[in-house]
Design brief:
This is Class I SAM-dependent methyltransferase. One of its GO terms (molecular function) is nucleic acid binding. Pfam families: MTS. InterPro entries: DNA_methylase_N6_adenine_CS, N5-glutamine_MTase, SAM-dependent_MTases_sf, Small_mtfrase_dom. The model has no long low-confidence stretch (mean pLDDT 93). It is globular, with a radius of gyration of 23 Å. It folds into 2 domains: 152 residues, no CATH class; 220 residues, Vaccinia Virus protein VP39 (Rossmann fold, 3-Layer(aba) Sandwich), CATH 3.40.50.150. It contains 13 helices and 15 strands. With 378 residues, it is α/β, with parallel strands linked by helices. The N and C termini lie far apart (50 Å). The longest helix has 19 residues.
Length: 378
């Protein structure tokens, strides 16, 4: 971590700087409070100046919303293609994160937020950041995300396919889009798992919360190995496996993609869009150059038992955005010596697919999520 420095009156102060999206260290910091006007805060943030808030907590949230409205006042540029619309959307999102990330708050040595009317954020911060190590400055926007993640963790996300809730941790993609879970819950299992259920094995690659591993175990797979490259995801999956009383059926392993050995069924729900994530939570959506997708397909033949299947859960949103073609995907299957045994489709049910104000509405409204049942050709 780096250290930020600022002046209060004639006193020089410092604190550790933390940013989950790797925002650069603020080079100029001014103190802001309830007297700070939104237009001045927005101008300073656009110029690269960070504002360390020392006023009322709820006023800080109002200031953040006012700055956000000023960003929205800029009319969107017209685009000529879906891919242009996507890249413009990503640039706008990056600009928004950069400007709004300039409003900072200071967490004390035990993660106390010493602002008027501030909530107790200590537990939420311990869950997200680990043990406290002294005063730390973070953006208010990030802290609000930490608070929201703690609430999600406590409340959980209802998963109809399991008849219960799973509890996402900070930085782990939550299974709020239930259609992909339903695909795994209802697709016909490979014949090998039905012939020998007592010895059946499945891998869930990129398990996240562990939701798909739990679905497979509940469907009768005797042993499920769930992997992920993220330590946060591994901790989250272990927590949910324990909550669901499935520790005797599910082994959480990692960090890594493929575990050792072979399986009758290997499931992977990789990030759907080939683009660079800008924060930990975006790693569940964006994957540069589709690295995880290609790694899964390339490694599948070597890890499947005879008669086994690989299930790829993938949206075609990238195709509608002009980021990947269907032929490119099929060519990747062929290069990995894989054949499509079946494809099961479902239309999205999430609200954004019907939001006509979304800049990507045209592509989202045409989106289909598919479960590709892949078998080896060799």
């Amino acid at each position: 971590m780096s250290t930020i420095h600022w002046t209060e009156g004639h006193t020089h102060r410092s604190a550790r700087w933390h940013s989950e999206n790797a925002a650069p260290l603020p080079q100029r910091i001014v103190v802001a409070d309830d007297r700070t006007k939104a237009k001045d805060a927005y101008r300073q943030a656009c110029e690269g100046t960070a504002l360390l808030w020392q006023g009322d907590f709820h006023n800080a949230r109002r200031l953040l919303r006012a700055m956000s409205r000023r960003i929205d006042r800029k009319p969107p540029r017209s685009t000529t293609s879906p891919s242009d619309a996507f890249h413009l959307h990503r640039r706008n999102s990056s600009h928004r994160a950069r400007v709004l990330g300039k409003l900072l708050v200071l967490l004390d040595g035990d993660y106390t937020l010493a602002l008027r009317r501030a909530p107790d954020v200590r537990q939420a911060c311990r869950e997200a950041y680990g043990p406290a190590k002294g005063p730390m400055a973070v953006s208010l926007r990030e802290l609000l995300g930490v608070i929201g993640a703690h609430q999600w963790r406590v409340k959980g996300v209802e998963v109809p396919a399991l008849g219960t809730r799973v509890h996402p941790h900070y930085g782990v993609f939550a299974p709020t889009r239930g259609e992909y879970v339903d695909l795994v819950a209802h697709a016909p299992l490979p014949p090998a798992t039905r012939r020998s259920p007592a010895t059946s094995t499945a891998f869930d690659l990129g398990t996240g919360t562990g939701v798909l591993a739990a679905v497979l175990a509940r469907r009768g797979i005797n042993r499920v190995v769930a992997t992920d490259i993220s330590p946060r995801a591994l901790a989250c999956a272990r927590d949910n496996v324990r909550r669901l009383a499935l520790t005797d059926r599910i082994e959480v392993s990692g960090p890594g993609l493929f575990p050792e050995g072979r399986a009758d069924l290997i499931v992977c729900n990789p990030p759907w869009l080939p683009a660079r994530p800008t924060s930990p939570i975006e790693q569940g959506v964006y994957d540069p150059d589709s690295t995880m997708l290609h790694s899964f397909l390339a490694g599948l033949p070597a890890h499947l038992r005879p008669g086994g299947e690989g299930w790829l859960i993938l949206s075609d949103l990238a195709e509608h955005l002009g980021l990947r073609t269907r032929q490119q995907l099929l060519d990747t299957f062929q290069a990995a010596r894989l054949r499509v045994a079946d494809k099961i489709d479902v239309k999205p049910r999430h609200p954004r697919s019907k939001d006509v104000t979304d800049p990507l509405h045209t592509a989202r409204s045409a989106e289909t999520t598919s479960l590709w049942r892949l078998i080896t050709t060799a």
